[in-house]
Amino acid sequence: MLNPAFQFKLQHTCKHTKARAGELDTPHGKVQTPRFMPVGTLANVKTVTPAQLSDCDAQMVLANTYHLHIQPGEDLVAEAGGLHKFMHWSGPILTDSGGFQVFSLSQIRSISDHGVVFQSPRDGKVIELTPEKSIEIQNQLGADVIMAFDECAPYPASYEAVAAASDRTTRWLERCLRAHARSDQALFGIVQGGVFLDLRRKSAQELVAFDLPGYAIGGVSVGEPPELIAKIVAAATPWLPEHKPRYLMGVGTYREMAQSVAAGIDLFDCVIPTRLARHGAALVAGDRWNLKNARFKRDFAPIDEDCPCYTCTNFSRAYLNHLLKSQEILGYTLISIHNITELIRFTKRMRAAILADRFVDQFSEFLSDGSQA
Ligand SMILES: [Zn+2]
User: Fold this and answer.
1) Ligand 1: distance of its center to the CA of 340 in Å?
2) Looking at the domain covering 7-276, what would its CATH class be?
């Protein structure tokens, strides 16, 4: 029996698209949707403190089962009092199951119905992850939302290979549910099926039979052309229940988020804001600026005059250019703060527009199939 603190309220649906505004309640607070969630892979959002993250108006943050299992290990996190206490984040947390990372980062020894055996990229140690083990780790970490262990097929892959991975993901979901031992954590299933729309539909239909508290669309942003993301999402969402939250994994660019919101997605996560920051790139109104560029050397304006973030309120492009040139960590922190705020604001603007019945008017430039943004 799931803790009654978990509730998803649908507040308003767009008249012209499937976009919706909602509210996900968790034992650690509310997430207003649509919402971008920053990624804290190793129980930290790179170079940003939890207080700064709060100032960015982050509501739910991610952490990663695969990485935390390898270092420092779930036993240590549990001993520290769980993930919220360990990383000093009192808001909602979601942990990924490790499925995506096993298939994208590690050297796989074997995949069978039982699970996956792989070599740790850290020390070469042989590790086995099974649906039961992934859930056991996530139960120990203690996030509010946990994810089913899935097989994420690479791109490109044959129809047969993707169908097999997708079927296995459904079989694994059954075992994840049996292994799940905490009522204060909501277990979301992950729709697979690669770029094959009929497989996406089949996967979504099979998952819905389990009546889960939420559904994710996984296996996107793995190298397929970005215009396919909207098609994949549109193939799966009509089969997912209206009154449950929908999470598109690993997507955090303006156009893909806007098009996915139009197809009925509520939650997003992506490492893009912090990864770009480490390369000196700032997200500005649908664009990316390289702040290392010489044209910013004497530019004393903030990154974005309309942005309320700590960075834009207090620092100039020239100062950030100087920090980046000197490889000072503060530069990465300040740009991360701006980039995270920017993507959260983008999803907040979509939410406000949906509530005001102005979503299509205000986001048309992102909803068309053109080449901007
Ligand atoms: Zn800013």
Assistant:
1) 9
2) alpha beta
